[in-house]
Amino acid sequence: MKRFVYVAQPTRVVFGAGSLAQLGAEIEALGAKRALVLSTPGQRALAERVADLLGARAAGVFDRAVMHVPIETAREAREVARQLGADCAVAVGGGSTTGLGKAIALDSGLPIVAIPTTYAGSEMTPIYGLTEGGLKKTGRDARVLPKTVLYDPELTLGLPLRTSVTSGINAIAHAAEGLYAMDANPVMSLMAREGIRAIARSLPALQSKADDIDARSDALYGAWLCGTVLGNVGMALHHKLCHTLGGSFNLPHAETHTIVLPHALAYNASAAPEAMRAIAQALGAPPGTSAAQAAFDLARDHGAPTALRDIGLQAADIERALAIALQTPYPNPRPLEREALHALLRDAFEGVRPQ
């Protein structure tokens, strides 16, 4: 067995249908008295429901979370938290809202309680991202790791199927790259395989019955595991490309991950064969189907986008995206080769199934 280092992240996880009802007790356990509830504009109603549940412990609602956490929004939210005297933040929603909570915590140290309603997985990581001047910068800081995460599958019953699929494949990407991370360890590899397997089996069930609570539980369970992998080991080429495409071209986060993943796996296949076999097996790939092809087929067969041109990228953007991605590359099992990366981006732009 290879040498490795494993450090557990100190997050409390409360999982199960109806667990939202425990929010007040979890806030009290943190010793907090005034919680600022965060959401996107579209989830204002859920944020108000959470605030009502908290009663006197709710300091207010800030509903302006957006993708990729623009620095201006982060500064505004930090100031609102300060003015309201908030001593914790409750992030209700997907990765955009969790990201905003992290931006507040990075500056103020306020503890975060995360209540995910998608499968982003970022609630399990000490990783934050801020977009300023058209560039998305990421970092790690223990202050931004949510203290408590409430996983309530009932809150995901209304998640549209397409969003469920892209969010789920986004989570799968975390686990897939965790399997060939430079600092991988056996615990995270176990979680990665189980996380991919749980989400992959949930998506066909959700396509048949979108409000299947068991399938929703499977998907959320998988997201927890995949997010834990993301928070414990480094990511590689796939995440670098997605951070570049999202932050610099404002492409939708989960859709970008869904489209890029098969091509990043194909690029790294020869350098990480054991990881690719594990990914293909966890995805339930038929004999002769590679991990990259299985990831592509999972998206295509469940109605998710497969081409960057279909979510807003222009052909003229490919060269700039490549240049940005090469500036500060993440560690990757295969060396970054400009021509091969250009072909990767071109295939992802066109929506070509990996060969």
Structure notes:
By secondary structure, the chain is α/β, with parallel strands linked by helices. Helices cover 51% and strands 11% of the residues. The chain contains 13 helices and eight strands. A six-stranded parallel beta sheet has the order 1-8-5-4-2-3, with helices on both faces. A two-stranded antiparallel sheet has the order 6-7. Strand 2, helix 2 and strand 3 form a beta-alpha-beta unit. Helix 9 runs antiparallel to helix 11 and helix 10 runs parallel beside helix 11. The longest helix is centred in the middle third of the chain and has 23 residues. The radius of gyration is 19 Å and the shape is globular. The two termini are 32 Å apart. The model has no long low-confidence stretch (mean pLDDT 96).
Total number of helices: 13
For the termini, the CA-CA separation is: 32 Å
How do the SSEs run, as a string of H and E? EHEHEHEHEEEEHHHHHHHHH
The helix content, as a percent range, equals 40-55%
Strand segment tally: 8
Radius of gyration: 19 Å
Roughly what is the average pLDDT, rounded to an integer?
Answer: 96
* Uncertain stretches of 5 or more adjacent residues: none
Secondary-structure content class: alpha/beta
Q: Any idea what the shape is?
A: globular
Strand order of the largest sheet: 1-8-5-4-2-3
Main sheet characteristics: 6 strands, parallel
Please indicate the percent range of residues in DSSP E strands (runs of 2 or more).
Answer: 5-15%
